[in-house]
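To whoever is on call:

I kicked off a structure prediction for a single chain this morning and the downstream step that reads the tokens threw a length-mismatch warning. I double-checked the sequence; it's 927 residues and nothing unusual in it as far as I can see. Pasting both halves so you can look.
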Amino acid sequence: MDVGFLVFGLAGLLTLVCFMPPLAGRLKLPYSVLLAIVGCLLGIIIHLHGWAPSWIGDFLDSLERFEISSETFLMVFLPVLLFETALSMNVRRLMDDIGPILMMAIVAVVVCTLVVGVTLDAISSYGLVVCLLLGAIVATTDPVAVVGIFREVGAPKRLTTLVEGESLFNDAASIALYSVLLAVLGGHGELSASGVFNDFVVHFIGGGVAGFAMGRLACFLFAWLRGFPTAEITLTLTLAYLSFFISEHYLNVSGVVATVIAGLVVGSTGRTRMSPTTFEYLSSAWEQFGFWANSLIFLFAAMLIPKLMAAADWQELALVAVLFVATLAARAIVVFGLLPLLGLTRLGTKVSRPYKVVMLWGGLRGAVSLALALAVTEQTGVPEEARQFIAVATTAFVLITLFVNGISLRPLIRMLGLNQLSPVERTIRNQALAVALEDLQGKTDDLAKTEHIGSEVRDRIRAVFDASLASVHDGQVGQMSDEQRVAVGLAIVAQREEEMFFDILKAQIVDWRMAESLLARAERLEDAIRIGGVEGFEKAIAADVRYSTGFRLALRVHYLFGFQGWLARELGQRFANLMSKRSVAQRLIMFTREQITPLLGEEATLRIVSLHQRRLDLIENAMQALNLQYPQYAQWLQESYLGRVARELERIRYRDMLEQFLISGEVYADLMSQLQSRWSHIDRHPPLDIELSAADLIKRVPLFEGLSADSLRAISKLLKPRLALPDQRVLTKGRHGEEMCFVASGAVAVHLPDNTMIELGSGEFFGELGLLGEQQIAPDVTSLGYCKLLMLSSRDFHALLARDEHLRERIQVVAKQRLRAIEVWKQFSQASQAAPAPAPVAAHTPAPSAAAAAEAAEAAGEERREEEAAKAATKGEAKDVTARDAHALGSEVVVVRQADGAEDARQATDRSAQGGATPGEPGLQSR
């Protein structure tokens, strides 16, 4: 065929397509139905155009010479349709209803295949395999017409998600069954349930894995193409075709599933990887691609209808009527029988009866079914009679669903009331209308005065506003309960938060990795509000400041192997995330006060603000611990954040000057070049130094003062630096006698068996009693803030004491004092059970040096101390005894917490008396 006429034919078809959307709107017909009508007419006219002028005749001749095969439909048009639908879907909304979607996409296809096959086999002579093959072909649904109607009448978004989600995956299930049955019919395989099941599972799961891998690869490549929108959009187009073709021809898995999953990955992850402006262009570009592909595939398929129906007889048409009833019954079994059963499981979500009715009647078929039927007619190994029957039955069935179901679907949705807003949504709409009209009325009056417009014209315009305001000023917001208003307000603010995070990504205030994390958490917060309201919000904000899975893994690797790089990156990422969240949280509170108050009222606004203030406090508390431990890194983050904001403001200013023709394009380009150079330093991200060098930390422990340089080097090789997080359990029951810990920086809390707590500060150590075989109590130890510890294993501990006699004496001195303090504490506890004790006290003494430890050793031999401790316990003189014991044991701070006054005094013994446990696996809890 001449290339010029090929281009002429395609251009003519696209020109015809341009006028169909407005024509469909005027005729009140679904767009797909109008395409089918025009396609059928073209299929007839191309054979009867002797009357037409030469240029029309040439156009029709070029259409007649088009070689339209099933492979053209599946390879050229289907990947674009699948990718465009997947790209526009909200993955989180899809996952919310993944149970019903997979039920309709997979189980419904199997049920339809079986019901159609068994029914037609019982009343026809074509055989079971042929009838099953027809059932698999007509099981695939086409959402284009249905979704178009949904958008036109304003159907709920969830209903659209259910229908589109079903169509994305049921093509894969239908094509998989079709391939197996076609092989059996052609004599290349055997029909068995296990064979079909295994083949389907491999194709479906394999396609999902292949699509995910290729989608992630494309997202990685977006970083290389960042700043070149045309290249980024082109990559998405090639991804749609490559994921389909490579999966089908090289990996032998489902190309449909691969393309769908790749589109979902790009739609959810790609917007943070590509340049922000590109993602906005991407949606428009793919909407255009989808319009072309959908229009052409329907026209080409409909043009084949006259040819496929030419040899139809009345017997085949009667079987088509049975086919229509059988498919409707099969769909009803799934929608009204299996979906409710799925709702009883954890995978199921409840689907209302009106939704089920629309899902039942909205199962329209389209171009994919026609393409599969056309593929059967091209198989010479299939009997001629079977090919004829499948072609006629499929074509007639598609026409029935388009002209009967498609045309009646709009009235059905209106009859069920699914095009109506809920009472809460109507109330919010009316209130938003009132707020907007009042504001616009004032601005219109000001504009009229400025432009010197006459009072008569102003009065007529004001009358339009007054008439609209009169219909909504009836206090409808007051009809909503407080909980409803707060829940609605929280949902609005959550959606605004997601947009704010995307805005700071577009402004390049954060990089794509951080934006990806922030957007994911914002979406989880929105989900929590939608499902649980205020309670869900409170749980979500507590989870929002917890440590991520990556952080937990990095910390575990750090504890097991001592690796610090991964943990430092995760800690720096957490620091930056918290700073961005704090900035957005502050702006959200301002947004709530300014925008939510006129919409929902003062009372609801105050409660929403208090909830977000609580969230801001949690973020501030989490940041404070990091600021105290890493002040220099905190200062750099603040500088980077402020610098990025200043850079964006400067960029906006230059762009405004260009748009107002204050500067030329050449000047603008030069200013932008200077801007990039001026602020380039803020993009150089310095690593967070978590300062965990054993050689440096060992100098902070007074116990090692005075040791020789060789001894310090030997000790530093044995000690393992570890970072403990706020509230992390660093010493737990069950592993006593394995390790001891030195507190190099920060503080830890020792939790005694009677639920009281003692603090150990920098320079203190614990766990030595267990290593010496003198363990008498088994306390838990948790970190207070970020704490740097030096860990010493049991084997290294004994080796160290055997090598350094002086150090052994120091540790033994403290151990003896702690053992005796434990005895005093026990005696004091027993005595306090019989007599009430005075109020709690605290003692403060410096950490023990070598000299202080020696003096304490001499004091340990005096029996007078024990006698005074016993007297103090009985006479209520706990303060003096506690202070003396604390001094002897070298504690830094003793903090006692309990509910009972008698308990307070007996717990004011030395912090250092708690030893002999080991740091366990970190248990992370955010404060």
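Update from on-call: the warning came from a stale cache, not from the record. Cleared it. Sanity check on the structure: Residues 565-600 form the longest helix (36 residues).
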